[in-house]
Amino acid sequence: MLANLPVSTIAPLQRVQNAAARLIKGLRPRDHVTSALRDLHWLPVRHRITYKLCVLTHLVHTGSSPSYLFGLVTATANILFRKRLRSADTNRYEPLTTRLKFGERYLSHDRPKAWHELSTELQDLTDHSAFRRQLKTFLFECAFTTK
After folding, report:
1. Are 3 and 102 in contact (CB under 8 A)?
2. How far apart are CA 107 and CA 1, in angstroms?
3. Could you tell me which residues come within 8 angstroms of residue 117 by beta carbon, excluding any fewer than 6 positions away?
4. Which of 3, 58, 67, 136 has its CA 20 to 30 Å from the CA of residue 47?
5. What's the rounded Cα separation, in Å, for the pair 111 and 118?
6. What is the DSSP letter of 42?
7. What pLDDT was estimated at residue 5?
C-alpha cells in the first residue's frame, strides 16, 4: 500500500518512527535520531517499504507465495516475445503496464522495480530467512552509509 507514494505522504510516518526512537532512547526532541535508528536496527520507512516489496517478490521467485501474489508479476522468461532475449535467463520480472499514475502505486508495478535493484547473489538465495537477513543488511547499509 505504501509503495511509490510521494514523500509528503511518507514523511509523517517517518516522523512517527523518529518519535518512537527518541522515546525509546531517551533523546530530546531536537536531537538527531539517525544514530538511534541505527542502534535499534530500524530501517527508515522508505527502506522498510522496499524490504517488504523484495520479501514478497522473493516468495514469488522461490514459488512459496500464495497464488494471488504469483499472478501479480510476470517473469521475463515467461513472456512470449522475450524468450530469446538475454534477459530471459535472469531473475527479472516485468511490471504490469498502467496508463495512470495511480496504477504505478500498485504492488505489481513497484515490486519488480525494487527487486531489480538487488544484486544477483541476493536474488539467487533460496533460503527465505537467509534472504531476509541479507536483504536487511543490504538496505541497512544503503540507509546509513554516508556518500
Report:
1. no
2. 7
3. 50
4. 67
5. 12
6. P
7. 79
Angle between helical axes of 107-116 and 45-62 (0-180°, round to 10): 90
- Least Cα distance to 60 among 121, 5, 131, 117 occurs for 131
Mean pLDDT per 10-residue run, the chain (147 residues)?
Answer: 80 96 95 94 93 87 77 58 53 60 50 76 91 95 82
99, 105 contact by CB (below 8 A): no
Predicted TM-score of the model (pTM): 0.75
| DSSP track, 72-115 | T-EEGGGSGGGTTSGGGGSS-EEPPP-SSTGGGGSHHHHHHHHH
Residues 6+ apart with CB under 8 A from 97: none
- CA 91 to the chain's CA centroid: 16
125-132 contact pairs (CB < 8 A, 24+): 125/58, 126/62, 128/58, 128/59, 128/62, 128/64, 131/55, 131/58, 132/55
